[in-house]
Amino acid sequence: MISNVKQAMRFFLSILLLSLSVIHASGQKTFYWVAGANNNAGNAANWHQGSCGGVTGLLPGVNDTIVFTKCGGTSYNCTVDVNLNVNKVDIKTLYTATIAMSAGKTFTFKTGKFNGGNFAGSDGAITSSKSFTLQGTNFTSTSGTFTVQGTFSFKSGIGL
Question: Is pLDDT of 60 > 80?
Answer without folding.
Answer: yes
